[in-house]
Amino acid sequence: MFLALDITVRKRNTERGNAMESMWSGSISFGLVSVPVKMYVATKSHDTAFHQVHKEDLGRVRYIKRCEVCGRELRSSDIERAIEGHGTTVVVDQGDLDDLPTDAKNEIGIAAFVKAAEIDSVYLDRTYYLEPDEKGLKAYALLSRTLADTDRVALGTVRIRNRSHMVALTAVDNVIRLQQLHWPDEIRAPRFTSLAQAPEVSKKELDLARTLVDTLETAFDAEDFVDTYEQRLQGLIDEQRATLDEDEGVTPNAGGEVIDLLAALQRSVEAAPAKKSSQKQVTKAGSARKRPANKRQVAKGAAAKKVAKRASAVKQQKAG
After folding, report:
1. Residue 296: φ, ψ to 5°
2. What is the mean pLDDT of residues 30-37?
3. Is the pLDDT of residue 168 over 90?
4. Domain that holds residue 137
5. Are 152 and 168 within 8 A, CB to CB?
6. CATH code at position 153
7. Which residues, in sequence order, are bridge partners of residue 157?
8. Which pairs from 238-246 meet CB under 8 Å and 24+ separation?
9. What does DSSP say about strands 286-288 and 281-283: parallel, antiparallel, or unpaired?
């Protein structure tokens, strides 16, 4: 099997992802105050999505759900949830789940307020944005301002898709964020026997380590870090796409003008500025900080060189 990139589907998903869609709606409840809100996922993945294809004819590889007892191919309506153990199989259908007593549906119940520094980062899970309903704007603003002014985090629980979650509410730039937290019994305790034989650290070593930390200390800026693997992967995909376009011939654009893709790509590579280093250059006097190049401006590296070389070869063939 091969891994292939579904360009069409990826573009469609990207366009749809630009408009935020709420995944849950309910209310924040603290004391006698109720704030109606909608929940939105705060993050998205920029990883390139591949699918599997048949090596010989590039047909898509599909996964079929089949019963291992009767051998029949199953539809979703034929399938139930089950738990196996102790020699038995216990089936739990949706009706059983709906009858379980849980937190109030569609309500984020605030139980306490704590200092943000008291929450260990190991508990942090996914982050969401909460948008207020027009009727709850004032109550939303009140809660947001209170959380920010007191530097507190609101702790509570919420039921989403038949599961209860422990959550923390914080306020950043007047927007309330909801952070899902792991339950205490989901946190694994580190048990490393190797630490028992850890050697002692000398004062000189510790002082040098602290000096290094002080030298490299700077304000946090996520833009200082670039996913170079994803950039190189996109360069490889662009090279493969250009090769396919060359095999299929020239491609007309929307205005009907014929474009030589390889020549245009070569000009783009030649016009692209050199990649800036995102690493901090440390000198004896201190550290000098450099901003990384814009992702669209970073050269494609080895992939770009291959494309340029291919384009040059094509030109020479045409000239000959």
Report:
1. -70, -15
2. 88
3. yes
4. 26-39+103-186
5. no
6. 2.40.290.10
7. 109, 166
8. 238/265, 238/300, 238/303, 238/307, 239/300, 239/303, 239/304, 239/306, 239/307, 241/7, 242/307, 242/310, 243/310, 246/310, 246/314
9. antiparallel
Q: What is the pLDDT of residue 148?
A: 94
Considering the domain architecture, whether residues 172 and 255 belong to the same structural domain is answered as no
For residues 35 and 131, what is the distance between their CA atoms, to the nearest angstrom?
10
- Of 122, 98, 117, 111, whose CA–CA distance to 166 is shortest? 111
Cβ density class 127-140: b for 16+ within 10 Å, e for less = ebbbebeeebeebb
With residue 260 as reference, give the H or E element that holds it.
none
Residue 176 has pLDDT above 70, yes or no: yes
75 token code pair: 């539809």
Q: Tell me the β-bridge partners of 120.
A: none
Distance CA 178, CA 155 (A): 10
Q: How far apart are CA 171 and CA 214, in angstroms?
A: 30
Q: Are strands 107-115 and 24-30 parallel, antiparallel or unpaired?
A: parallel
CA distance 222 to 240: 31
Q: How far apart are CA 160 and CA 143, in angstroms?
A: 22
Kind plus residue range of the DSSP H or E element containing 252: strand 251-252
Is 232 found in the same domain as 180?
A: no
- Name the strand (E) or helix (H) holding 53: strand 50-53
Amino acid at position 113, single letter? F
